[in-house]
């Protein structure tokens, strides 16, 4: 299977696998937001340090995962890069959503 590489199939495979890496960051974000660890809260003055810490760890794991996919699919590297890059769109949406959960005072009770 190592030599059986087709562009669209590799793109879809890398996209799906990268989405699992991204989904793994969601529970970490909730744990980090609830724990209020000092080093995370020192990352930002407005209480969004857990978002920045999660995004930083996300970036490290995503770059490592990109390297693994480039090694896994040596003949289809552009397709692997395309699948990885496509997964950055939902990742950006999740980061904005996490930021709004922590920082935005959108829900007011009793008003």
Rough shape?
Answer: elongated
Helix % is over 70%
Q: What is the strand content? A: under 5%
In whole angstroms, how far apart are the ends? 60 Å
Structural class: mainly alpha
Overall average residue pLDDT: 81
Poorly predicted regions are: none
Radius of gyration: 17 Å
Give me the number of helical elements. 6
Largest sheet: none
Order of helices and strands: HHHHHH
Instruction: Count every beta strand, where a strand is a DSSP E run of 2 or more residues.
Output: 0
Quick summary of this structure?
With 111 residues, the chain is mainly α.
Please characterize this protein's 3D structure.
The protein has 111 residues and is mainly α. Helices cover 74% and strands 0% of the residues. It is built from six helices and no strands. Helix 1 (7-23) runs antiparallel to helix 4 and helix 4 runs antiparallel to helix 5. The longest helix has 24 residues, at 49-72. It is elongated and about 45 Å long. It starts with 6 loop residues before the first helix and ends in an 8-residue tail after the last helix.
Topology diagram in text:
Elements (H helix, E strand, L loop, with lengths): L6 H17 L1 H11 L2 H4 L7 H24 L4 H10 L1 H16 L8
List the keywords:
single chain; 111 residues; mainly alpha; 6 helices; 74% helix; elongated; transmembrane helix; membrane
């Amino acid at each position: 299977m190592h030599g059986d590489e087709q562009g669209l199939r590799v793109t879809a495979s890398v996209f799906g696998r990268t989405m699992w890496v991204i989904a793994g960051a969601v529970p970490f974000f909730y744990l980090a937001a609830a724990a209020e660890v000092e080093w995370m809260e020192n990352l930002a003055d407005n209480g969004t340090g857990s978002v920045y810490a999660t995004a930083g760890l996300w970036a490290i794991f995503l770059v490592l995962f990109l390297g693994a996919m480039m090694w896994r699919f040596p003949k289809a590297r552009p397709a692997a890069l395309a699948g990885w890059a496509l997964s950055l769109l939902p990742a950006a949406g999740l980061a904005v959503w996490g930021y709004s959960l922590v920082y935005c005072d959108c829900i007011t009770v009793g008003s």
